[in-house]
Amino acid sequence: MKNISILIVEDEVNINEIVKTYLDKEGYATHQSFDGKSALENFDKCNPDIVILDIMLPDILGTDICKEIRKKSNVYIVMLTAKSDEASIVEGLGIGADEYITKPFSGKELVARINSISRRIEKKPEQPDNILTFNNKDLVIDTNTYEVKKRGELLNLTATEYKILLTMVKYPNKVFTREELILIVLGYDYDGMDRAIDTHIKNLRQKIEDDHKNPKYLVTVYGIGYKFYGGTSK
Questions:
Q1: CATH 3.40.50.2300 spans which residues of the chain?
Q2: Which burial class, exposed, middle or buried, applies to 127 when counting CB atoms under 10 A from its CB (0-12, 13-18, 19+)?
Q3: CB burial of residue 95 (10 Å; 0-12, 13-18, 19+)
Q4: pLDDT in tens, 196-213
Q5: 5-122: CATH homologous superfamily?
Q6: What's the topology of domain 131-228?
Q7: Whether the predicted model's global pTM rises above the 0.85 cut
Q8: Is the bond into 215 cis (omega within 30 degrees of 0)?
């Protein structure tokens, strides 16, 4: 029996029950909510390890629920929604979702994703949730104080640089295009040049890399964008 609890937030009863059935068979402890208000109440009551969250709920948008949860918890959030356009996916990841699954979905895929998250939870290192460390504490990020340290030395990052770094750190090895980083970090209202991201990345590299011309953290994927490669988090 897995010692992991999951809150399923889905207003369509049949889908909610299907998800619950799949996860119950895997040995997870499941809790159900069918609207946003009860989701927030149940979250505080059952303190789940994973939240499966629909976006289109009858009372509160799933995106708003995600934002509320992120104010107080780093719990894993999996968006499960019919909104499959790129802008919705980018928005979901940008406000704090860890995974994004579109409807119609495969039950086997859902279980595989949840099992993958479950393994990460079980192997989670014994350190405060707000502390992210990489390469034997060569790089340390404190998400409570917004501090970034390189070999113990506090770095002077701008707010935008910090947002870019934290966004990429949360999804190691995921390749971000310039457009995605602009939407996530600078928002939809940004009307500047997408090459501005290149300047921010360049400045970040000068601060966190041993050799900014041969980066080991912020790696260029030519013709596409950038990814964070931090090695093992310890």
A1: 5-122
A2: exposed
A3: middle
A4: 788 889 999 999 999 989
A5: Response regulator (3.40.50.2300)
A6: Arc Repressor Mutant, subunit A (1.10.10)
A7: no
A8: no
Decide: 200 and 164 in contact? Cβ < 8 Å: yes
Please tell me the distance from the alpha carbon of residue 162 to that of residue 108, in angstroms, as a whole number: 37
Q: Which residues of 128-144 are buried (b: 16+ CB within 10 A; e: fewer)?
A: eeeebbbeeebbbbebe
The C-alpha atoms of residue 214 and residue 44 are separated, in whole angstroms, by: 45
Reported as a single tens digit per residue, the pLDDT across 110-145 is 898 899 888 877 655 455 568 888 887 889 999 888
Q: Please report how many Cα atoms fall inside a 13 Å half-sphere around the Cα of residue 168, on the Cβ side.
A: 27
The terminus-to-terminus CA distance of the chain in angstroms comes to: 27
| pLDDT, tens digit, 9 for 90 and up, residues 38-67 | 999 999 888 899 999 998 899 999 889 998
